Amino acid sequence: MSCWRKKIGQATGPQKLFMDNGSILLEEVVKCCDGKNNPIINFSADQILKATNNFNQSNLVEKNDCNYHFYRGTLDDNRLVVIKKKAYGGLHARKICRDISISSMVSGQKNFIKLLGCCLEFTCPVLVCEYAEGITQNDLHQIDPTLPWNTRIKIARDISNSLAYLHTAFSTTFIHKNVHPRNVFLDVKGVAKLGDFRNCVTIPQGESFVREYKLEGTYGYLDPNYMSKGIITENVDVYSFGVFMLVLLSRRTPGLDDELHPDFLTELAKNGRFVEILDPNLLENIGDFAEQELCRMQAFFLLSLKCIGVRGEVPEMMEVSKELKRIERS
């Protein structure tokens, strides 16, 4: 390690950035992945600049809050990719290295954005990912209104699979902590994929929770127990996923729309008035099987209420995934 530090001290320019960021990334890989990460390619700064035409604004496809900018890029082999770059004043290198390390670990599962590689030669590392498009369309990150009902159900099922995988596939439980429409993408085959692991935390084997004293995530999607006590359990993801389901149904904005308040939602469920929050675009395109589709929407709505803890016991993500599969096939 002392030899490595000596080399860092002697390096300059891109080489120093590479070694500084590389040491942080190595720490995150060891801490998070337990040696179970997939191989990734190391891209040079020149390759990234060439792929994005020097981060030309014409290639900017999305701004993910104040932290990431997403650029369309073309590699030397003509592959289309998405390049994630730190926004000005946004993330620190350690957060981005956490994203890289966990992305590399889950890239083999189809419902996560596949990380192809990274570049460590910028002030903060840059991620190179498979090409996929976001499901939101404006600064409020509202769902694309053209997404049909069947696609929205499939998106929910795909993302529930990714969260169940994070919670159960490893010796330690991974909590995403920022399930939000802006972190969900669709590939060319219509497969929904979850990305952005910068806020991800682990619950050690044998423990049921960890505690944090600095809240992270998106207002309107935060589990009340996490907000009030800083306690992180699997329910943090289940709650935000339940809100995500409500957004898929309604195209409304949590935290800004009173009609997504739990008390109002409970009243709708009690009186069978759930149709009042549905996205009008869904009702307009419901087709010849209106009664059947409304039954599926109601089941979807009631499941979302279970996830946010206002209708019975909060389910685990594996249960949610199974129920969504049943709803999709009904």
From TrEMBL:
Keywords: ATP-binding, Nucleotide-binding. One of its GO terms (biological process) is response to temperature stimulus. It comes from the Eukaryota. Gene3D superfamilies: Phosphorylase Kinase, domain 1 (3.30.200.20), Transferase(Phosphotransferase) domain 1 (1.10.510.10). InterPro entries: Kinase-like_dom_sf, Prot_kinase_dom, WAK-like. One of its GO terms (cellular component) is plasma membrane. It holds the Pfam family Pkinase. One of its GO terms (molecular function) is ATP binding. Residues 55-330 form the Protein kinase domain. SUPFAM superfamilies: Protein kinase-like (PK-like). The keyword Nucleotide-binding applies. This is Protein kinase domain-containing protein. It comes from Capsella rubella.
